[in-house]
Design brief:
This protein is mostly helical and 503 residues long. It contains 22 helices and two strands. A two-stranded antiparallel ribbon has the order 1-2. The protein is globular. It comes from Marinimicrococcus flavescens.
Length: 503
């Protein structure tokens, strides 16, 4: 650790501190506004790094990276709209908590879980970056396909009580993910003669439609006395330590899952969040309550997606391979400063790298402090009268849907998704499986097809010479069987309780 003191000397200056503060505030805002997100936030900041010294420029980019992922949870909890796709799983329990008047608690759970996940992945990054980068190289298309297959079992977890509807919704999400130009062949699929569909269905407008607009339509058609008039607490509330200790296993598992998934190039925080949520559904202490406003769901999602931030930097820094689209943009900031990521990075710039690790830890701490400080103002949104709140949500939805690509077609996508989502809700079809299929579908299909190419079209060859894939597929099979058995048992118990008693 002979480089630690020089690294501290490098980062303990006013410019680095200002970069962290400004970057964190900007990242939280960009993450919370639907349709903007991490990549756009870093891209906007990139030109400002041209004239900055290496340490402040890296601090600015890292602060935006961490805080924007967390920022998406704020809108997910308060207005049922994930600010970023990474927070799609946060909606499942965050918004129900806000509806029952516990928005302050939900923000507390999300903020502390995000802080712990970020610090955990930073510690892993410091201690084991080169070794973990080599582990990431052992994941080829077949192993990644098996990992995504395991993540898709989350569909069964969030569909309890309506397994058939949930599976159909998941299939719909997977189908929507295939719309557009096939990246492997160049053919356009399922565009139905609509030119704009050749580019595919953009995820953020779909999320906005399924969650935000569906909620607006439901509120407008719901009788006033059914909307509820709960006392919605203002501020920021951290749960007692004993509540955290009851969920510590989910917290640790989610941190590990997020870090490991982040290390794998091309997977991302959305995948990590759904894998962690699925694991919480399988083994969590409060697994039967997930989806109804249970803090364990927030812990699983937020600890995992923020742990990805440190994990994704492992292949980026150690191998020069971006862990996700955000780190691909971050690599540009390093290259602008004359720093080439790769195997020589730690040997050529040790002080700067250790300084970056210190900055990353500081960014997570500042993020949590800013989130707590902003919570009193943010939670007041829920006390707005519905005639004011609903138009505000509608305006944010329109801006978010249009802001992704500046394409008016995305507004139509959000509107159609909102209308379809509203009718699906009336029919008892859950929204989450559609999102899961849409988020994981492209990676699932791409790696499946690449694996089949490697094995000359033989799926059975996936089970030969790929021990990691075999283990992951075996776990997937067990999870699916247990979900089906559990669903059959619940149906049997329900029919037994409603059967007439013979007299």
């Amino acid at each position: 650790m002979e480089h630690l003191l020089p690294a501290l000397d490098l980062v303990l200056n006013l410019n680095v501190g200002l970069a962290i503060l400004v970057g964190t505030a900007f990242g939280i805002v960009m993450g919370a506004l639907p349709g903007l997100g991490t990549v756009l936030a870093i891209t906007i900041a990139l030109p400002f790094t041209f004239s900055m010294a290496p340490a402040p420029s890296i601090a600015l980019v890292l602060a935006i990276y961490c805080s924007s992922v967390y920022g998406g949870s704020i809108s997910a909890i308060l207005i049922n709209t994930p600010g970023t796709p990474q927070s799609a799983a946060t909606v499942l329990d965050g918004y129900p908590m806000a509806l029952r008047g516990d928005a302050d608690k939900a923000l507390g759970w999300a903020t502390i879980a995000s802080l712990i996940g970020g610090l955990f992945s930073t510690a892993v990054l410091v201690m084991a970056a080169p070794r973990l980068a080599q582990f990431a190289l052992s994941f080829g298309p077949i192993e990644t396909f098996a990992l995504i297959a395991l993540a898709l079992t989350c569909i069964a977890g969030v569909s309890r009580g309506s397994m058939i509807n949930g599976l159909l919704a998941g299939i719909l999400g997977l189908f929507l993910a295939t719309v557009g130009t096939d990246t492997m062949t160049g053919f356009v699929r399922f565009d139905f003669g609509v030119f704009d569909l050749a580019a595919g269905i953009e995820l953020v407008p779909l999320l906005i439609g399924l969650f935000a607009l569906t909620e607006v339509f439901a509120r407008l058609t719901m009788p006033q006395d059914q909307t509820g008039d709960l006392e919605k607490r203002i501020g920021f509330s951290v749960a007692p330590l004993k509540e955290w200790l009851l969920r510590w296993k989910t917290l640790v598992k989610s941190c590990v899952i997020g870090t490991l998934v982040g290390i794998l190039p091309g997977t991302g925080a959305s995948t990590a969040a759904f894998i962690s949520y699925s694991e919480a559904k399988r083994s969590g202490r409060y697994r039967d309550k997930l989806g109804t406003g249970e803090p364990e769901g927030l812990v699983a999602s937020e600890a995992s997606n923020n742990a990805v931030t440190g994990g994704a930097l492992v292949p980026t820094l150690a191998l020069g391979i971006p862990g996700d689209p955000s780190t691909a943009v971050m690599m540009s900031a390093l290259i602008i400063q004359g720093i080439q990521p790769g195997v020589r990075l730690f040997a050529d710039n040790p002080e700067l790298m250790y300084g970056s690790f210190i900055v990353l830890a500081a960014c997570n701490i500042v993020m949590a402090v800013m989130g707590a400080a902003a919570a009193p103002a943010l939670t007041r949104i829920l006390r707005m009268p519905e005639p004011v709140l609903l138009p505000l949500v509608l305006v944010l939805s329109i801006v978010g849907a249009y802001g992704v690509r500046g394409n008016p077609f995305d507004l139509l996508t959000a509107l159609v998704a909102g209308i379809v989502g509203f009718f699906l809700r009336l029919c008892g079809v859950p929204m989450a499986p559609i999102v899961i299929g849409m988020v994981l579908g492209p990676t699932f299909e791409e790696n499946l097809r690449q694996g089949l190419i490697l094995t000359d079209g033989s799926f059975l060859a996936f089970f030969s010479g790929h021990p990691i894939a075999v283990v992951l597929l075996g776990v997937t099979f067990v999870v699916v069987v247990l979900a089906l058995v559990g669903e059959a048992r619940r149906r049997g118990e329900a029919s037994a309780t409603t059967a007439p008693i013979a007299g």
